[in-house]
What does this fold into?
Amino acid sequence: MKILSIDAETNGLYGNAFIIAAVLFNENGQVEEFFCGRAPINEEVDPFVKDNVLPQVKGIGVSNNSYGSLLEDFIRYYKCNKDNATILVHMGCPVEAKLFIDAQKMGFMGTFDGPYPLIDISAYPEISDSVDKYAKKHNLMDEINEMMTELEIKGGTHNPVYDCIVTAKCYMHICANSSTISEI
It folds into this structure.
């Protein structure tokens, strides 16, 4: 089964997304394609975002003029790629969950177009709040960095393309090394 890993960066934990990424992995764990869009932040920038997110996303140019436009483009990509894919996030509430709620409210998707189920890798005790720690512990960083280089994306944690890749690679590693998951 394919994996569609989704991540967004918002202006504050409950703010609107200004960058949304989704990376589609094929059955062999390789990147098939990806989406990354950015809209301007039109209000005061949250201090956490200023210090931790903006330095990681310098290379991602503005592609959309508003949150609504960005969300509409993302949902179009999502709807084209969600079938036969595991939809994956890391700590998806409130950020990624809000994307789908807003998209439905704005009319970009129907009531039953949402990700059912939306798998949140942070529910795995091995992961909890840090896919980065898990990736380092299990020697996944070289492969993750290689994928970032191949996609010509710079940045680490809080770059949504990076976050999609590390989330998916950790999930693949857990699935490959867990008898419980493989038996389901």
Observations:
- The mean pLDDT is 93.
- Strands lie at 2-10, 17-25, 31-38, 85-89, 118-120.
